[in-house]
């Protein structure tokens, strides 16, 4: 509600083609999302909690009790060992000592993976593993870092290899 004018405004409507594209992406990556939901739900009895994060297009499980720290995306599910997707983190290139980048928002990095999953669906995991797994060499990770830093370039085959 606009307090000065007293009117109620609804958020702008998204174009029909964008809604359709998101729906198709959600269905296409559903097998990955189900794996993510199972992983996330397994953490609930051990202190994890979940919520829908519309900003990152995902169900997020915070305080997930396993793993070395950080977050992992499976379809439209993010399992995260911390408390907030607003945490700052360093890029893969920074971690590898290749450059000194400014920190990025973890949620933005993981949102790039959600978008990648929505386009690639069941092909994501095999392509991710063939591209180098969790490493600075992986084009998926470099694209997610680029997206988190600039808001553009989440597609792994755009920009630098």
Overview of this structure, please?
The chain is α+β, with helices and mostly antiparallel strands. It contains six helices and six strands; from the N terminus they run ααβββββαβααα. A four-stranded mixed sheet has the order 1-2-4-3, sandwiched between helices. A two-stranded antiparallel sheet has the order 5-6. The longest helix is centred in the C-terminal third of the chain and has 15 residues. The radius of gyration is 17 Å and the shape is globular. The protein starts with 15 loop residues before the first helix and ends in an 11-residue tail after the last helix.
**Alpha plus pi helix count:** 6
User: Can you tell me the overall shape?
Assistant: globular
Binned strand content: 5-15%
- The structure class reads alpha+beta
Q: What radius of gyration results from the CA coordinates?
A: 17 Å
Query: Within the largest sheet, what's the order of strands?
Result: 1-2-4-3
Instruction: Tell me the series of helices and strands, N- to C-terminal.
Output: HHEEEEEHEHHH
What share of the residues lie within helices? 40-55%
Q: How many extended strands? A: 6
Major beta sheet, specifics? Answer: 4 strands, mixed
Distance between the termini: 47 Å
Low-pLDDT parts are none
Quote the average pLDDT: 89
């Amino acid at each position: 509600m606009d307090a000065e004018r007293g009117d109620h405004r609804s958020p702008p409507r998204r174009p029909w083609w964008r809604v359709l594209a998101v729906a198709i992406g959600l269905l296409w990556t559903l097998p990955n999302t189900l794996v993510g939901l199972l992983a996330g739900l397994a953490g609930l009895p051990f202190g994890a909690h979940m919520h829908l994060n519309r900003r990152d297009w995902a169900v997020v499980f915070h305080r997930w009790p396993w793993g070395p720290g950080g977050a992992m995306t499976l379809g439209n599910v993010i399992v995260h060992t911390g408390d907030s997707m607003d945490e700052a983190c360093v890029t893969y290139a920074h971690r590898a000592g290749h450059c000194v980048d400014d920190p990025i928002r973890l949620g933005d990095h993981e949102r790039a993976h959600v978008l990648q999953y929505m386009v690639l669906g069941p092909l994501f995991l095999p392509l991710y593993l063939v591209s180098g797994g969790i490493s600075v060499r992986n084009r998926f990770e470099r694209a997610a870092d680029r997206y988190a830093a600039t808001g553009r370039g989440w597609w792994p085959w755009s920009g630098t290899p």
